[in-house]
């Protein structure tokens, strides 16, 4: 008896294509892929192996590593650099993965969230690859494995078009410029001072900001920064 492979929906296929293109761009720029799966660490390890070990002759070995064990937030915090990518396998209610996803923007890390059942809130990750099946045993089947095998294969398809992978400089416009608009940049507090200042981590590195509007902050807090000032804290 042969097992049937479930069809990939049109929506999921489009999400896979976009996520794979982003991965190819990030890898071309020197990114490392970090993999977490709190309830299913074997999935994190399997994804890392897929990208590190090219099973097809002529395909590139890509830098990837699985992070497992306690305090995944802390592990990603000290491991990932700006420009890296994080892929998480978890359901939408996983608090630890949710915390990582919120902080990843402050770290400058691109995020992919793989899961099933009820979807995460819109914008919870840069890319969401989701199976709508609510069966609690689904992560133990081959459907998740198929999902990240397709992600790996499509990423290598994108490498065949190097002209599309070159980085493009971001343009400063009146709508998005961080120095002349009201947009706030996400940042994570890594230290505080007694003089109403805090040291924060942003995608551009560390900087010192004023905390006049927010009041005292603690390491690990997420804030929005504008013109050197913390203008608001970011809640879960």
General description of the model:
This protein is α/β, with parallel strands linked by helices and 236 residues long. The protein has two domains: 10-164, Rossmann fold (3-Layer(aba) Sandwich), CATH 3.40.50.10490; 185-233, SH3 type barrels (Roll). Helix content is 30%, strand content 23%. The chain is built from five helices and ten strands. It has helices spanning 10-28, 41-52, 72-79, 95-107, 142-159, and strands at residues 33-36, 64-66, 85-89, 110-116, 127-131, 185-192, 197-202, 205-210, 222-226, 229-233. The strands form two sheets. Strands 2-1-3-4-5 form a five-stranded parallel beta sheet, sandwiched between helices. The chain has a five-stranded antiparallel beta sheet with strand order 8-7-6-9-10, with helices on one face. Strand 3 (85-89), helix 4 (95-107) and strand 4 form a beta-alpha-beta unit. Helix 1 crosses helix 5 and helix 3 runs parallel beside helix 4. Mean pLDDT is 88; it is low at 1-5.
Which helices and strands appear, and what pairs or packs with what?
Elements: H1 10-28, E1 33-36, H2 41-52, E2 64-66, H3 72-79, E3 85-89, H4 95-107, E4 110-116, E5 127-131, H5 142-159, E6 185-192, E7 197-202, E8 205-210, E9 222-226, E10 229-233
Parallel strand pairs: 1-2, 1-3, 3-4, 4-5
Antiparallel strand pairs: 6-7, 6-9, 7-8, 9-10
| Count of discrete structural domains | 2
Bin the helical content.
25-40%
Structural category is alpha/beta
Poorly predicted runs are 1-5
CATH domain class name of the largest domain:
Alpha Beta
Which sequence of strands runs across the widest sheet? 2-1-3-4-5
Order of H and E elements: HEHEHEHEEHEEEEE
Please compute the radius of gyration using only Cα atoms.
Answer: 19 Å
Instruction: Characterize the biggest β-sheet.
Output: 5 strands, parallel
Shape: globular
Say what oligomer this is.
single chain
CATH architecture of the largest domain: 3-Layer(aba) Sandwich
- What is the overall pLDDT average? 88
**Count of separate DSSP helical elements:** 5
Please report which band the strand proportion falls in: under 5%, 5-15%, 15-25%, 25-35%, 35-45% or over 45%. Answer: 15-25%
CATH superfamily of the largest domain: Glucose-6-phosphate isomerase like protein, domain 1
DSSP summary, beta strand count = 10
CATH topology of the largest domain: Rossmann fold
Distance between the termini: 47 Å
